[in-house]
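dude i think i finally got it to work??
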Amino acid sequence: MAWFVYLIECQDGSLYTGVAVDVERRYAEHAAGKGARYTRSHPPRRLLAHFEHPDRSSALKAEYAIKQLSPAAKRSLAGKGAPA
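look at this
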């Protein structure tokens, strides 16, 4: 089963990074206010990108690495990722 790391742009311009098996379902949860605590207080504007990984472990490692990047680097990465 493939896992995905995804990037969401929030309405205030901030970025959220997460992992999921079903990115569309998870984004819908965020948009409905039932996702992560961060996106409940920073509602999502759009899904910027998602990246496929073969398993949960590699997705979590990639998520951690992306979270260490600056916002500008995350936006650059999103421009190279799979379109949302």
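The two ends are 20 Å apart (CA to CA).
im so relieved honestly
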